[in-house]
Each structure stands twice: as structure tokens, then as C-alpha cells.
Amino acid sequence: MFRMWGKIWKDNRMLQDTVSCITDYSLSRTAMVFQALEDICYELDLSKPIWLNANISEFQRVSKTRFTQDSFVEQIPFDYLEIQIIEE
């Protein structure tokens, strides 16, 4: 099972979190990451963030990244959205 944890942070406090579970192993790892991020954004009622080069390189290195205001088109009422793979 592929699981990704999404957390919304503001002022060093976690406001909301959710876990997305993907069980369709016919998908590639990249497709599972995008599907999990879409599920997390839907659950937290957020628009999908834009993957910047810094997000891509950090995610490839440590399977974790933060999306700040720069990654969102509209204003966000929090500091950042953090995603992390917790099980592959």
C-alpha cells in the first residue's frame, strides 16, 4: 500500500492533516504521488499546488516537500502544505 501524509501548518502548529492510501499498483510511483496529492488537496479543500524545481528535488531526495504560497495560484490562509510518503 502506498500512503502519503498531508499536513497544513501555520505558525509552527499543525492545523489539519490527512492520509491518502493508494492500492492500485498498476500505476507508476509518479502517478501514485500525483493521485495521492490530488486526494489530499480534495480532502483539505485546497487547489492543487504547482511543483517548483525546489519541490521536485527535495521530494526526490527525502520523499517529503513543502508547498508555500509560491506554489499556489490563490491566497492560502496557512504557511505551507507539507506532504510526506509514509509507506511504499
Would you mind describing this structure in some detail?
The protein has 2 helices and 4 strands. With 88 residues, the protein is of the alpha+beta class. Strands 2-1-4-3 form a 4-stranded antiparallel beta sheet. The protein starts with a strand and ends with a strand.
Question: What is the element layout, followed by pairings?
Answer:
Blueprint (H helix, E strand, L loop, with lengths): L1 E9 L2 E10 L6 H15 L9 H10 L1 E4 L12 E8 L1
Antiparallel strand pairs: 1-2, 1-4, 3-4
Q: In this structure, how is the largest beta sheet organized?
A: 4 strands, antiparallel
Secondary structure: number of strands: 4
Low-confidence stretches: none
Q: What structural class do you assign from the helix and strand content?
A: alpha+beta
Order of the strands making up the biggest sheet: 2-1-4-3
How far apart the termini lie comes to: 6 Å
Short recap of the structure:
The chain is an alpha+beta fold.
Write a concise keyword list for the protein shown above.
single chain, 88 residues, alpha+beta, four-stranded antiparallel β-sheet
